[in-house]
């Protein structure tokens, strides 16, 4: 007879660890938008760069 006290938990509990990857410069929304507008307005942009972006 198996009782509740004799059961082994088969549920994996992952360690509760998190990492913070924000060690770089924080970019504002306006800077982000300006960077991509500049990128897409390049006169020599080709189809590969459009797909890549």
TrEMBL record:
It is found in: Mitochondrion inner membrane. Gene3D superfamilies: Cytochrome c oxidase, subunit Va/VI (1.25.40.40). SUPFAM superfamilies: Cytochrome c oxidase subunit E. Keywords: Heme, Iron, Membrane, Metal-binding, Mitochondrion, Mitochondrion inner membrane, Transit peptide. One of its GO terms (biological process) is mitochondrial electron transport, cytochrome c to oxygen. It is a peripheral membrane protein. One of its GO terms (molecular function) is metal ion binding. Its main location: mitochondrion. Pathway: Energy metabolism; oxidative phosphorylation. GO terms for cellular component: mitochondrial inner membrane; respiratory chain complex IV. Belongs to the cytochrome c oxidase subunit 5A family. Component of the cytochrome c oxidase (complex IV, CIV), a multisubunit enzyme composed of a catalytic core of 3 subunits and several supernumerary subunits. The complex exists as a monomer or a dimer and forms supercomplexes (SCs) in the inner mitochondrial membrane with ubiquinol-cytochrome c oxidoreductase (cytochrome b-c1 complex, complex III, CIII). Component of the cytochrome c oxidase, the last enzyme in the mitochondrial electron transport chain which drives oxidative phosphorylation. The respiratory chain contains 3 multisubunit complexes succinate dehydrogenase (complex II, CII), ubiquinol-cytochrome c oxidoreductase (cytochrome b-c1 complex, complex III, CIII) and cytochrome c oxidase (complex IV, CIV), that cooperate to transfer electrons derived from NADH and succinate to molecular oxygen, creating an electrochemical gradient over the inner membrane that drives transmembrane transport and the ATP synthase. This is Cytochrome c oxidase subunit 5A, mitochondrial. It comes from Anguilla anguilla (European freshwater eel). The lineage of its organism: Eukaryota, Metazoa, Chordata, Craniata, Vertebrata.
